[in-house]
Give the backbone structure.
Amino acid sequence: QVQLVQSGAEVKKPGASVKVSCKTSGYTFTSFGISWVRQAPGQGLEWMGWISPYNGNTNYAQTYQGRVTMTADTSTNTAYMELRSLRSDDTAVYYCAREEDYYDSGGLNYYYMDVWGKGTTVTVSS
Amino acid sequence: EIVLTQSPGTLSLSPGERATLSCRASQSVSSSYLVWYQQRPGQAPRLLIYGASTRATGIPDRFSGSGSGTDFTLTISRLEPEDFAVYFCQQYGRSSYSFGQGTKLEFK
């Protein structure tokens, strides 16, 4: 079955960087995009960006432009999200999610995140 | 950026009752890009509905989605104990996603 297994919890100091991994299995890695979504404690969901493992194309939310890098290793079917210059308000659970993007028989395009990792808790504290 | 506003913030109901959750967009959203997720405490979000009205694989038929343009609705016809959770709507547009702030469905 399709699985996204994320790396373990991290504790970082302000100003540091964190790199979270998302190892996938059960499907063709290059056939689906991977989105990263974060959730601060007690808050809602915030989309951070997307990567295509097929060609490495990325699309970052404006909020994170210049501070985030998403990569994909097709040899290990693993996606990565690195966030730099961490602040206390970056404390959150970070999720990777597989993105489904398809056209139905009528030519209608659909986008949604159909499988999610369990999340990685990143705590930023001095 | 399209802003999604969900209402109510909290909905207090009992098992067996009907739940109606609203998601309103600040501008028109393509129905094929409107999605609903369920998040239980301590768990990752789970895909419920995509394309505004299509249930994801394995989702019970008590869940239904409807709407178009700027107004979308998630309906749970008869609440089961495991349905008490937080529900988020999401839209895709201009190569980015945005989420509503969530509706918490709690036991009355």
